[in-house]
Every structure is written in structure tokens, then in C-alpha cells.
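Batch manifest line 403
LIGAND: molybdate ion
JOB: complex structure
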Amino acid sequence: MSLLSVDAAFALLMEGAAAIEGTESLALHDAHGRILAADLVALRTQPAFAASAMDGYALRAADADATLVPLSVIGESAAGRAFNGSLGPGEAVRIFTGAPVPAGADAILIQENADRLSPDKVLPLEPAVTGRHIRKAGADFSAGDVLLEGSTRLTAGAVALAASGGYPRVTVRRRPRVAILATGDELVLPGESVGPSQIVASNSYGVTAMVAATGAEALDYGIAHDDAEEIGGFLDRARAENVDIFVTIGGASVGDHDLVGQVFASRGVALDFWKVAMRPGKPLMAGRFGPMRLVGLPGNPASSMVAATLFLKPLVAALAGFPRIPIYRDAVLGADMPENDLRADFIRARLGHSHAVTPIVTPFGRQDSSLLSIYAHADVLLLREPFAPAAKAGDPCRYIVLD
Ligand SMILES: Nc1nc2c(c(=O)[nH]1)N[C@H]1C(S)=C(S)[C@@H](COP(=O)(O)OP(=O)(O)OC[C@H]3O[C@@H](n4cnc5c(N)ncnc54)[C@H](O)[C@@H]3O)O[C@H]1N2
Ligand code: MOO
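JOB STATUS: finished
ARTIFACT:
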């Protein structure tokens, strides 16, 4: 297969990528970041009663006009303990923030503007204004109002609003299940003893973190040897576990031990593409196995993470039900760049700001796709389009934020 452009490969991958079916009910504490399955309608009115916004005295504004004569204090209304009675002419009720405003009162005089002459007398020092410092019943929302529309992502504020609306639990969309399998005889898990010619598997940790942060239920399947039967076994397990996206890492290239493509082919998977005109990440592959999507990431650490950022992350977001957001932003180059060849370059770079509004993107000097120490310190990926001509520091460029 020849090299496909990044845009063409992306379009193939995203064909038919829409929010998956299925919902689940979650305790509100577990729902942050999840997507509401349906409109959330207020079960109650907030506030349910007219409430004082300040500490002071509830009274009739007409009694605290320019004449400012003392009023009789006939009781107290505190948050959670209302004054049971109604207030008549010449009377005031001591009141605190959040407490119900007693019947008969139409204004709150803040205590800074009152002189408590004795336990049962208060002298207004300023005129009161009708309605001032009173929160009307339903000022926030009323029972039956749509508090949050279906498909809303639950921010911390939205979680608080759901609680206020009377919901201890909410129904959210199911997360896409994404299984991640590292492949390679050379791999051991972090913390295990590393034999000669072995290395520690790192990519699956990065990719797992990335997909989990993008709204997936991430299942780390661990490591498979370079063994077609073993890799095939994991593919079957993913099908049996109703995985939505099965991600392999490594074994995507052309070497004798690069078996992922062969395993997919032996199961009758028709690949949507294999090999993309990008650097790093060229041997990326994607396909479908029944309802399950397959993404084969290249093994080199930066290749794996870059390909996952550009392809896997948007796919997960789409299956999770998040709207597609443009990923490229504008900046200026912090260094001269040579002309580019046929592969789009995604260059690990730092993002800086000068006094100008436009940020500056400065590439790291070393770009080898094995270098995690560079990748982990990169703020962004600088895009160099295929066949981009040489460019000077200060020229416009585009970049993608890494997180
Ligand atoms: N003759 C050619 N050789 C290669 C080509 C090519 O076109 N022709 N492409 C190169 C490119 S580009 C890449 S990228 C690599 C990717 O190959 P694979 O996906 O088959 O990856 P592996 O060979 O399995 O591993 C490459 C490298 O990465 C390390 N690795 C693998 N998995 C992990 C992991 N989970 N965590 C950390 N490191 C991992 C592995 O040990 C290797 O060092 O192929 C080029 N070759
Ligand atoms: O494109 Mo590879 O992904 O050179 O490292």
C-alpha cells in the first residue's frame, strides 16, 4: 500500500464515527466529565422560597423611609429555621443570609445600616428599598425547567447544578471501551526485571492515559509476544468483551516480526489504510472487525503518541459523543526550518510567548521517534506540511497542543 495523506487517512478513520449506543446511571460524584444521556429537568424550585441575600432585618420598606423611626424586633429567621409568623407595620425580623423572608416583609435592611437599640428595638440608619436583597422563589430555576440539555458534558458546575436540581444520580452515555495491547518479545512491564536486549513497555501507559482522558474506558491488555496466535487471541478477547476500539502498539512495520497486519488479515479484517505520509507515525493502520474498530499504532514511543494524538484521540472523542474540535492553532516559528519532503512532520516543540499576542513554537533539536524524554517535555507538535518550503523564524505556522 502506498502512503496516504494525513487528511485522507483521517477521513477514512472517522467514517461513521458517532456516539455509541448505551447509557449508565452514575452517582453524581462519579459523573464529572461524562456526557448526559438526556435532558435533566429540575425536580425542585431553587430557591423554593423568597430568601434573604444578606444578614440584617426583614421589614416593610415603607417603615424605613426617610423618617427612620425605630421598629419592633419580633423574631428571627435563620437559614434552615424560618420565622413562623407574619410581619406587621412597624415590625422587623432579624434575618440571616439564605433564610426565608417572613410574610409581610418586602425588603432587607443590611445590619451595617441598622442600630440595634435593644433586644426588641432596631433603628434603621438608611431608608430600605422594596425588593432589595431578596432572592425571589425560583430565581435560579423552577421545577420542570431544563437544567442541562442531553449531550452536555458534565463540568464541575453542571454537577453542582444537577445536585441542586435534586439528582443524587444521573444517566450518562456509556464510554467507548478501548483495549490497548503492547506487542513485542523485547517488552517487560515497568518494575519487572529487564533482561539483556529487553526494554520497558511505555507506550501503553501513555496511550491508556490519553484515551481515558478523552472519555474512554481504557482496558490495558498488557503485553503480547511477537506471536500471531497470541496477538490473535487478544483480538478475539476484545471482540468477546465488546470492545469498541482495539489498539495495538508495535509490530506495525515491515519487519519479519511485525505481525499485527498479518493477524488482522488472517481474521479477515479489511484494513481501511496502512501507512500514512507522516513523520513520526508512518506505519499507522486502521480497520474494522465487525462492530469493533482496530487501530494499529507504530511501536516507536513518539510515533505511537503522535499517531494516537492525531487519530485515536479524535476517534475516541467521536465515539464518546464529544463534538469535533479543531486541533490546529496558529503561531509563529521560533527557529528556521528546512524544506519538507512528502511526509507531514509533527515536530516536538516548546510553546512560548513574547510580548506579541501570537505564541512562538520552537522545535527541539532532536526529533528521533524513540525519544520519550523529548516527547514528554514537548508542549506542542509543530506541523510542517508535506513539501513545505524552507521557512524563517517569525514565519506563521500551525501546531497541536499536547496534554
Ligand atoms: N525497513 C523499514 N523499517 C522500518 C520502517 C519502514 O518503513 N521500513 N518504518 C520505521 C518506522 S517509521 C517506525 S515508526 C518503526 C515502527 O515499527 P513497528 O510499529 O513495527 O514497531 P516495532 O518494530 O515493534 O518497535 C519499534 C521500536 O519501538 C519499541 N517499542 C515497541 N513497542 C513499545 C512499547 N509498547 N513501549 C515502548 N517501546 C516500544 C521497540 O522496542 C522498537 O525499539 O519501524 C521502522 N522500521
Ligand atoms: O515515522 Mo516512524 O513513526 O519514523 O518513527
